[in-house]
Amino acid sequence: MIGAVSGSSEETFDVRGRTVFITGAARGIGAATAERLHAKGANVVLVGLEPDRLAALAQRLGETRSMWVEADVTDLEALQSAVAGAVERFGGIDVAIANAGLAFSGTLAGAPVEEVERTLAVNFLGVWRTNRAVIEQISARRGYLLNIASLSAIAHAPLMGPYTATKAGVEALTDALRMETAPSSARVGCAYFGFIDTDLVKASYAQPAAQRLNSRTPAFLRDPIPVSKAVDAIERGIERRSARVWAPRWVGPMIALRGLVQPLVERRTLKEQANLIESMRLANEPDGAAEHDLTLGVAAEVLEQRESAVASN
Known about the structure:
Elements: E1 4-6, E2 19-23, H1 28-39, E3 43-48, H2 51-61, E4 66-70, H3 76-90, E5 95-98, H4 113-140, E6 144-148, H5 161-181, E7 187-193, H6 199-206, H7 208-214, H8 219-222, H9 227-240, E8 244-247, H10 251-256, H11 258-270, H12 273-283, H13 286-290, H14 299-312
Parallel strand pairs: 2-3, 2-5, 3-4, 5-6, 6-7, 7-8
Antiparallel strand pairs: 1-8
């Protein structure tokens, strides 16, 4: 068993005939979750920034039970419009998954300011805006809202400062909203994932600085798990309207022992300061930062590589 859930409600929450609103639905976990839940009978609302990919996914699923909306999660009005469109089309929203996120590699002292601020705007404020846009629907329909955080919410690694700060913020935001929403009988959950085999992780791993740091990381922490394992955990979390969802399975004990995790991360990292210093140097090289796409983060690099490969063939 690779994924797990906690804080489950008693009755199974069946998505058949219900409507699921997913941000970051153009690729990765968002797209795979949409496919899984649609196959189980749900209507899916695909929200994201890549219209061609969103349209292709909606066409593949069929227009009867899917729709797509191009919207940036940093734009509250765009999200509110997407929610209104989903309500008009399907009658309401029963489940929402705040999945949109991006990442850049760099130090807090040396990374381009616009990359740091974009990370904060998408990964944290974007989740809050998504929550704000959907929570009235979720509460009224006694549904379920799942915010996608990360193992980075409790284990704060170097070169990931903005990313890990946003994921810790998402966890705290979720905890507060869970209590505020409880009187409505709706439920709010937080997902904690290790490295997943997505475009974001592939592109992050391709960075020279990350490659150097990862060379000292234990394989069970470093090796990505299939996207399907994250979707398995999400599916079970929705069925049980769980307070917490995680994958792989070993993430659960790390959540429980969070007071020990960060000191161990720091101790291990600082034991090899030469490796850390060289990794930070590589991360702050201007040429590497210049290749990053401000809208999609490092994940755009993987997409560009794929498009180049298709064009060359």
